[in-house]
Write a structure and sequence with these properties.
Elements (H helix, E strand, L loop, with lengths): L1 H32 L3 H39 L2 H37 L9 H12 L2 H17 L4 H20 L7 H26 L13 H34 L3 H36 L3 H28 L1 H9 L6 H16 L1 H15 L6 H24 L1 H25 L7 H27 L1 H4 L3 H26 L4 H11 L13
């Protein structure tokens, strides 16, 4: 448990820095682009390489690569693990190089598939295609970054990989502040920033793998026995990741049909939810997978079960209150962070509605991150595909049912409900196979966390009403009001959680150090 929390704390702390910088990035983007044509075009262009990134790198490839790499380290040593990583690198690079070249050619035809509603605005599709051609090479570099990150995680070094998104935000902020001043259109400045960030992140991780004693070369691609095992495991995982990414594509398509600004409202709302998702869910998931892989390789089934329970407990301790806070005070969060420049009061109201809907799914998003390693560590990449397919089907149906009466908020709500279905089915299958048993400690603490969250939400609701004049008195007064709500929410939740027995004093102190506060969020690239 100590090793898991130390690793999760390392990832969480650096992810928090990335999210804070990401907030700065998104505040700048909102001020420069607002939620109009340029913003919609850039966000779709940014989504495109990230869609393929999650499909081939962070999704299926990462889930298949890390258990094999960690198992080789445990069983055969560093030389065998490094040789396997080099073969995997060759397969990844040459595959994605071919995809990148093809996409550069077909981009004018690919963009209308992703955003058919853009045809209603003159020049919007052409602008999006131009931006996507600039951003798409990011895929190649960031995919290699994902592999190098998996190597470092396999040897227990989490800091360098967790810090990589910080570089993305720094480069994007620099591009947004400097290139427009030199005469470049803001949307193009950000697109070039994305491309440059991929190169910077690659160089950063490459240096750290060398420092860790894992210098890698790029051999010619060759299918060894272990490479074939990797490909077999990637196959089902790629389908599963593809299902998830089709969900994102479907949401983008539906949002483009809702009307001008919908893509951007959903983007800004999603960035807020990425703080608890990244700081808690992604951090725990990344730390849990190599740990479970090593425990299962060593035959420590009981230890693996305990690790998964403690990971779930830690995740609930932070994500349940985050959900409650974001559902109670969405408008102050959006208004203080984004309402300036081209981003107006109407955009704040529209984005706040989407934020409430996304927040409802936060515990489910994080639960998936905790549960999926239970399959991946056992070499099972097929079952999550089936569960993801069920979620995809539900998401499409819910989108069609909800976007009519609720517009873009219905799209966000459909995403959250589909994630709850995905998390529930993953937990059910793990339990039926005997790989997941919720222990007495987790059962006891779950309801106590929920009770403390309800008390905190009531306090935030009253605080929001009392501080309402501050949010109408200008940006600095609004920022002070939001800071008071965040600090008050943290203190109330900490006190109630302690009184209810949801966590010990030491656990609360550690959780607050890792979380850095509940409602304040923003992001490195987790889900663009």
């Amino acid at each position: 448990m100590g090793g898991l929390l130390r690793a999760a704390a390392t990832v969480s702390g650096l992810t928090l820095v990335s999210r804070i910088l990401g907030f700065g990035r998104d505040v700048i983007i909102a001020g420069v682009l607002g939620a109009g044509t340029g913003a919609d075009a850039f966000f779709v262009a940014f989504k495109l390489p990230n869609l393929f990134r999650r499909l081939f790198a962070e999704g299926a490839f990462h889930a298949a690569f890390v258990p094999i790499f960690s198992g080789l380290l445990e069983g055969e040593g560093r030389v065998a693990a490094r040789r396997f990583a080099e073969r995997a690198l060759a397969l990844l690079v040459w595959t994605l190089l071919a995809i990148t070249l093809v996409m550069e050619i077909v981009m004018p035809w690919a963009v209308p598939v992703l955003a058919p509603g853009f045809t209603d605005t003159a020049g919007k599709l052409a602008l999006t295609a131009d931006l996507a051609r600039i951003t798409f090479p990011y895929l190649l570099f960031i995919a290699v970054v994902a592999l190098l990150s998996g190597m470092l995680q396999g040897v227990g070094r989490f800091a360098a990989a967790a810090a990589a998104p910080i570089l993305l935000n720094v480069v994007l902020i620099a591009a947004a502040l400097t290139l427009p001043a030199l005469g470049m259109a803001p949307a193009f400045a950000l697109a070039w920033g994305v491309a440059a960030a991929g190169v910077v992140q690659f160089l950063w991780l490459l240096a750290h793998t060398v420092r860790a004693g894992f210098p890698v070369r790029l051999p010619r691609p060759r299918l060894t026995a272990r490479s074939r095992t990797l490909v077999r495991r990637v196959g089902p995982g790629a389908v599963g990741a593809g299902v998830y990414q089709i969900n994102i594509v479907a949401d983008t398509i539906f949002a483009s049909l809702v009307g001008e600004g919908a893509v951007s409202w959903l983007y800004y709302a999603d960035r807020i939810t990425q703080l608890p998702l990244g700081v808690v869910g992604t951090a725990v998931g990344l730390a849990l997978l190599p740990m479970l892989s090593r425990q299962l390789k060593a035959g420590q089934e009981a230890g693996a079960m305990d690790s998964q329970n403690r990971a779930a407990e830690f995740a609930l301790l932070l994500t349940i209150p985050a959900m409650g806070a974001l559902m109670v005070v969405p408008a102050p969060v959006i208004g203080v962070l984004f309402e300036r420049g081209a981003f107006g009061a109407g955009d704040t109201a529209a984005t706040a509605g989407a934020l409430m809907a996304f927040a409802l799914g936060l515990p489910a998003y994080v639960a998936v991150k905790v549960l999926a390693p239970g399959f991946f560590a056992r070499g099972d990449t097929r079952t999550p595909v089936i569960m993801a397919s069920l979620g995809f089907t539900a998401n499409i149906g819910l989108n069609l049912a909800l976007m009519g009466p609720l517009g873009h908020v219905g799209i966000a709500l459909a995403t959250s409900l589909a994630q709850w279905l995905n998390a529930g089915t993953l937990a059910m299958v793990l339990a039926r196979r005997g790989f997941l048993r919720v222990d007495a400690r987790l059962k006891s603490r779950a309801w106590r966390i929920a009770a403390a969250t309800l008390g905190m939400a009531a306090g935030l609701w009253g605080g929001r009403r009392a501080l309402a004049p501050l949010f109408d008195a200008g940006p600095w007064a609004g920022a002070g009001g939001l800071a008071a709500l965040v600090l008050g929410g943290i203190l109330v939740y900490a006190a109630l959680a302690r009184l209810a027995g949801a966590a010990t004093l030491g656990e609360l102190k550690a959780a607050m150090r890792r979380s850095g506060g509940g409602t304040d969020a923003g992001g490195g690239e987790t889900r663009p």
